[in-house]
Amino acid sequence: MASVKIDPVVAQNNPPHVEPAEIYYGSYENEMSPIQLRIATGGAGQSGLVRALADAFIDTQVKETGCKPFAVAWLKSDTAGSFNNLAQASADLSITYHPAAEDIAMEQGFAERSVYAWRDHFMLVGPSTNPAQLTLSPTTSIQTLFSQLFRGAVANPSAVRFLSRYDKSATNIKESYIWTTIGQALQTAAKLGEYTLVDRGTWWGVEGWVREKMTVFMEAHDNDKDHILLNPAHALVGSWGKHKDTANAFVDWMVRDDGGQKVASGFRVNGAVLYTKAPKEERAGK
Fold first, then answer.
1. What span, in angstroms and rounded, lies between the C-alpha atoms of 114 and 224?
2. Cα 108-109-115 angle, rounded to 5 deg
3. pLDDT at 280 exceeding the cut of 50
């Protein structure tokens, strides 16, 4: 959620500059093309999905509207930072994973539109030796696994540990929520023999030796739209962004089966599909 004082006049007239982590030009690769869209997000940029979406969107806009080639900037930020960038108009659009905060952003007025963009998936992973003796069963709930982790850590604290991100990311928010219901990070977990929660992009993006040392004990599946490890991504259009028209055009394209949905669901890392389409009945947005 935005942790800054919101002043629409300041946001519109003098937004803080955020240096892009990367800038994309579609198939044109013209560094003179002006930036017409600034997207604030974290993991989807690190996995390469934002690049794939931006390049396809630029090419589609030029082809379908006849506009001149333009650029899209990725502003690297965690969940909290993405909301702040939107509130301060440093970003035109943010990709976030916090439904309650997204609703507040709409209520407070610094986001004017929100659509379900794609589905990401969390995984509970840990050492292959499984010192907590987690149950490997399709009928076991994630709450049961976390309860087993807790009991294992109490009984044998030197052998059973859970590595928390503690960084205000979507992963940190999700793990905190799961712990509450029962009462870099991935590599560190592998080296130290710890359990942790990761998204598919992180899991398939790390070096092979990390996955070889670890086991997936549970991951989200699309056949249960309410699965606690599903990580719905929403695209929020900022109310005061400099390039609001382009942000709205991106969102319109994002929900198209022949547009962003095709790009997201076809995106792979090391041969693995990371993201799936947003449910068609839920793409209309707010």
1. 22
2. 105
3. yes
Instruction: For residues 145 and 24, give the distance between their C-alpha atoms in angstroms, rounded to a whole number.
Output: 41
CA dist 166 and 176 (Å) reads 9
Buried b (16+ CB within 10 A) or exposed e, 109-143: ebbbbbbbbbbbbbbbbbbeeebbebeeeeeeebe
* Contact between 169 and 41 (Cβ < 8 Å): no
Burial of 48 (0-12, 13-18, 19+ CB in 10 A): middle
Q: Measured between alpha carbons, how far is residue 72 from residues 52, 124, 131, 143, 151 in Å?
A: 11, 33, 46, 40, 48
Sign of torsion over alpha carbons 165, 15, 244, 4? positive
Reduced to 3 states, what is the DSSP secondary structure of residue 103? helix
Q: Residue 112: what are its φ and ψ, rounded to 5°?
A: -110, -5
Give residue-wise pLDDT tens across range 93-134: 999 988 888 998 999 999 999 999 999 999 999 999 999 999
DSSP track, 185-236: HHHHHHHHT-BEEEEHHHHHHS-HHHHHTEEEEEE--TTSTT-TTEEEEEEE
Residues ≥6 apart with Cβ < 8 Å to 249: 61
Which of 226, 225, 124 is closest to 171 using CA atoms?
Answer: 124
In this prediction, residue 171 carries a pLDDT of 66
Helix (H, G, I), strand (E, B) or coil at 78: coil
pLDDT value at residue 185: 61
Instruction: Quick: pLDDT tens for 65-97.
Output: 999 999 999 999 988 889 999 999 999 999 998
Pairing outcome for strands 35-41 and 93-96: parallel
Cβ contact 109:256 at 8 Å = no
**What are the structure tokens assigned to 68, written together?**
């001149």
Reported pTM: 0.84
